[in-house]
Amino acid sequence: MSARVVVALGDDLRRRILRDTDLDRLAAAADVVLTRDPAALDAADICVTGWDTPPLPPSSYMDGARLRLVAHTGGSVRHLVPAAALDRGLRVTQVAAVLAEAVAEFAVMSIIAGLRDAVGFATALRSGEPWADLAARPPGRLLRDQTVGIVGASRTGRATLHRLRPFGCRCLVYDPYLSAADATALGAEPADLPRLLREADVVTLHAPVLPSTRGMIGAAEVAALRPGALVVNTARSALVDGAALLAAAARGRVRVVTDVFDTEPLPADDPWRRADGVVATPHIAALTAETLREQGAVTVDEVLRFLAGRPLEHEITRAAYDTAA
């Protein structure tokens, strides 16, 4: 009997991520069912999940359940699969490595655009500000001559460091799980968080949300930032005291580029939409046409490896679950 694969993505997301050729590859190796009905998981061997998939019901991973693999087309699986499911033998794979490339590119773009105040200049030009007044504005800053602090040597943090190296800027990295030797190999200086915040002209966040990292950039840490520092958040809003950061931006003490928020979608009246000193984008750092296609292809590759009894390339082990995003 063929293995049953439940693709638990909404129609729109499934069409964006899984091409017909990907579904055909799945269908050639398994019985494929397209549904978000949680009850379908009781008869599934594998479940393909996405950003819009609801949390797995306990019946799907309790002792004796049929489900053996969750293949997630996104990054974090914490909202879908509890640690208890892995303890009972459920295997989980995801495509964070694919997303990291797009997010790192977006982070570097945000750093350069923030340092040069590209959005501010473009907005003022569109609003009709005289050319001479624009030319008299304070000039931007050269990335080469800045100190960039990377908070979190995650896949995305490392990919961001890799992309920063050609610019010649000094990089500091804070990650309690990263050795000094590994930091040096990445082209960065290891630093504790207070030193990083004190010395960095740019702080870019790439840490997972864990009990130890939730609110790690609190009001005291925001106050410790260098005057004029640029803060870029493409990770998770829960890492930061948003009210403290927003207030610092409103006072002109720091500038912020953020792609993540406590409430998403962001309400129409939310102050992040129109705050001075802030460039806000709607959680699109990982969203490119190429990345979406790769998410689907890599996920299907993982499912086919599993069905063939081959090692998975993107598995979240029980040990890694505790420190993964």
UniProtKB/TrEMBL annotation:
Domain D-isomer specific 2-hydroxyacid dehydrogenase catalytic residue range list: 66-316
Keyword Ribonucleoprotein: no
SUPFAM superfamilies: Formate/glycerate dehydrogenase catalytic domain-like, NAD(P)-binding Rossmann-fold domains
Keyword Oxidoreductase in annotation: yes
Stretches assigned to the D-isomer specific 2-hydroxyacid dehydrogenase NAD-binding domain: 109-285
GO MF annotation terms: NAD binding; oxidoreductase activity, acting on the CH-OH group of donors, NAD or NADP as acceptor
Keyword terms: NAD, Oxidoreductase
Pfam families in the cross-refs: 2-Hacid_dh, 2-Hacid_dh_C
InterPro entries: D-2-hydroxyacid_DH (IPR050857), D-isomer_2_OHA_DH_cat_dom (IPR006139), D-isomer_DH_CS (IPR029753), D-isomer_DH_NAD-bd (IPR006140), NAD(P)-bd_dom_sf (IPR036291)
PANTHER family: D-ISOMER SPECIFIC 2-HYDROXYACID DEHYDROGENASE FAMILY PROTEIN (AFU_ORTHOLOGUE AFUA_6G10090)
Family: Belongs to the D-isomer specific 2-hydroxyacid dehydrogenase family.
Name used for this protein in its record: Phosphoglycerate dehydrogenase
Organism: Jiangella alkaliphila
